[in-house]
Input
Amino acid sequence: MKICPKCNELNGENRTECWKCGAILGPVDKYKKICPRCGLIYSQRSEICDKCGGRLSVYDGSTDYKFSGTDNSGCWLYIVSILFPLIGIILGCIYIARREDDLGKSLIITSVVVMVISTLISLLFVSCTSTSLLNT
Output
């Protein structure tokens, strides 16, 4: 049983405030939560990380988490989706300079189409991610 420091009333063990006078009976958080992605620690009432939007898990202090700081996998996908079509455009220009017009034109057209599609998909993905974070 917890004893209220203000009015000395007995309260249940799970109570965080006195039932009689409303005084706080001690620490509110019995456990903490941690974001597995970025490592920030939150109170037990939090559910989602403010920094990255990830779901929080219970942190007991005994688990040794290793954090990389940031998740760069999405960044690499954007770089690759722009780098490969640029290489295709450069190769297309080289083939056109060698008088292989059909191959050069098809490489340039294909590269431009791939760049447009990857840009549209990335914009769609970003808008879906931000919408899902707002809904949670």
